[in-house]
Design goal:
Elements: E1 14-17, E2 23-27, E3 32-33, E4 39-47, E5 52-57, E6 69-72, H1 79-91, E7 95-106, E8 111-120, E9 133-138, H2 139-142, H3 152-163
């Protein structure tokens, strides 16, 4: 989101040179720059630590591909806390181990995806209302069920498979 007006005082913003950032929307009344904002979310490949991963069907996201656990980071929450919370909320699994894999920009929704691979502490899936289906799948099979090459889902499953070699 690019600011045009100050969210605090409502005054129309000017462009002002801010260090190496170039021209940034700036509020002369509040004396502060207003940098562009975007959503940050997590995406987690949940594994059994061996060769199985959890795939989700969430029809409001895709009817063509299976998804991984994902969700928006709440204010005052770290990406790691969000990943643990979302896994428990969406599929009822506790996380024994969480590994940061990287980040990826998602153009379609202007968001930063923060990616993790997690090892579940238990295997009994309990669905939330926002998940239509979830199940354990062989990671090699899962690679062909998630969004295609180039997606963060594909990248996570590939990374997990590579770590098992």
């Amino acid at each position: 989101m690019r600011f045009t007006y100050c969210p605090d005082c409502g005054k129309k913003l000017i462009k002002k040179e801010i260090g190496d950032e170039g021209e940034i929307p700036y509020c002369e009344t509040c004396n502060r720059p207003l940098f562009d904002m975007f959503s940050s979310c997590i995406i987690v490949l949940v594994t059994d630590g061996k060769d199985k991963v959890v795939l989700l069907r969430q029809n409001y996201i895709s009817r063509d591909y299976y998804n991984l656990v994902s969700g928006y980071i709440k204010p005052k929450e770290t990406a790691e806390e969000c990943a643990i919370r979302e896994v428990e909320e969406e599929i009822g699994l506790k996380i024994a181990k969480l590994k940061f894999v990287g980040t990826q920009w998602f153009d379609k929704k202007d968001m930063l995806m923060i990616a993790f691979i997690a090892t579940a502490d238990n295997k009994e899936i309990k669905l939330s209302k926002e998940v239509d289906e979830a199940f354990w799948e062989d990671a090699k099979v899962a690679l062909n069920k998630v969004h295609p090459k180039g997606s963060v889902s594909y990248r996570l499953v590939s990374e997990f498979l590579s770590s098992k070699k």
